[in-house]
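Complex 265.
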Amino acid sequence: MGDVLELAEVSVRRGTRTILDDVSWSVNEGERWVVLGPNGAGKTTVIQLVAGRLHPTSGKVTIIGEEVGRTDLSELRPLVGLASAALDQRLPAGERAIDVVVTASYGITGRWREQYEELDLDRAQVLLDVFGVGDLAERTYGTLSSGERKRVQIARALMPDPEVLLLDEPAAGLDLGGREELMAALSELAGDGRSPVMVLVTHHVEEIPAGFTHALLLRDGRVEAAGPIEEVLTPQHLSAAFGLDLEVERHRDRYSARAAGSARS
Ligand SMILES: Nc1ncnc2c1ncn2[C@@H]1O[C@H](COP(=O)(O)OP(=O)(O)OP(=O)(O)O)[C@@H](O)[C@H]1O
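Predicted structure with adenosine-5'-triphosphate bound:
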């Protein structure tokens, strides 16, 4: 199975700051990755690179076999679905949820005068249904709760049938019920062999859906650990990445972490 995404010795610098420092990482077909690390570790920067939204200062980024800088990114971008806070801000508040999803087929964020095929509208509705927001299809995006918006965004990211699905902090700001419903939907997606390669960014091990197979742990723009999830999400690696002594528990396919000794009285 070939690499779907690859960073080879990638660095990103802004002024005198090195945001990513010599990062090498590869993602293969069928894998579901979580990118984990503290604030400012470089997670969003990694996602922007593999979404084709950012060029590295040095090193090589390859997306579905095409090297960034040597290929037309506008052709590559529809193959990579992205849901992020930055996208949320670009989506028009007055647009219906169904239009937020269907416009992704055209790579745009606002519906204008295009005519959509019935097939596209049906697919958008099915995707909204899959994420439990089908009954909100006619509601305007601006009137949705943050949890509902997240789900509409994921439906949108899946609309063009991408080869890669990138989710930057999909559970941020959700209440416990909203988070768990989203985890269930993402677990189902992760377990479906027809789903695209998935990469999900989070700060919290509790926000990793069951079925995720690999983890990339970042600290200060460098790779702390990368590989099969059970080898990466150890107390040693997580303590080193987050800079405090952590205990980690795994229950079935879900994780939790807390400061070592904090549960004792
Ligand atoms: N254009 C820029 N100029 C200077 N510094 C930047 C720029 N963009 C990002 N950074 C810095 O790079 C670091 C990594 O940012 P990034 O957003 O990738 O981290 P992150 O791990 O996603 O953080 P968070 O968890 O807080 O969202 C941060 O310290 C950020 O302030």
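The pocket of adenosine-5'-triphosphate is lined by residues 14, 17, 19, 37, 39-45, 203 (CB under 6 Å).
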